[in-house]
Design goal:
Helices cover 25% and strands 41% of the residues. It is an alpha+beta fold. A hairpin with a 2-residue loop joins strand 3 and strand 4.
Length: 170
């Protein structure tokens, strides 16, 4: 079965694009919304996000925990935030290679901002059968595309709730 390499979803948040971008583009905060991410450590300390910024994401799925190394590939305030995941490991991200790209787009719409979150599978060199078998083991029976579609939906709903219930998303 051929793989789905990209999944995305959108939600409208009752806040302006700059405010939403200001929260989403801070990797240490992602754990507030994501069902898997626990936050991140930014090399050199977190400050304004920039293209090329490197951070380590801390993640969990059930009892499993792992760390990823990521590099910001787009930091356009109020418009777009993206990063590439290029290393993974249990405590330290030692296994290097293309893993995934995450992107967030922020579009002004009546009533707020349409936030679109996109996951792209960067494991292009993996044969489909190998990737599908690995995915089903790692996710408890799903492909990563199906698994990430569910995670994206959960993340967007949590982001909306946090941004609309807490002033300035704090």
């Amino acid at each position: 079965m051929p793989r789905t390499y990209t999944v995305s979803d959108s939600i409208v948040v009752a806040a302006d694009p700059s405010t939403v971008y200001g929260q989403v583009s801070r990797p240490s905060l992602m754990g507030r919304w994501s069902p898997e991410n626990l936050g991140a450590t930014v090399r050199g300390g977190e400050r304004e996000t920039w293209n090329g910024m490197v951070f380590e994401g801390h993640n969990k799925r059930g009892p499993a925990r792992w760390t990823t190394r990521c590099t910001v590939t787009a930091a356009d305030p109020g418009e777009r935030f993206a990063f590439r995941v290029h290393a993974i490991g249990v405590r330290k991200p030692r296994l290097r290679g293309p893993i995934a790209t995450w992107e967030y787009r922020f579009e002004p719409v009546p009533g707020g901002t349409r936030v679109t979150e996109t996951w792209t599978d960067d494991r292009r060199s993996w044969p489909d059968a190998v990737a599908n078998a690995f995915d089903r083991i790692a996710t408890g029976g799903q492909t990563f595309a199906a698994f990430q579609a569910r995670n994206i939906r959960a993340t967007l709903r949590s982001l909306k709730r946090a941004m609309e219930e807490e002033p300035a998303g704090r």
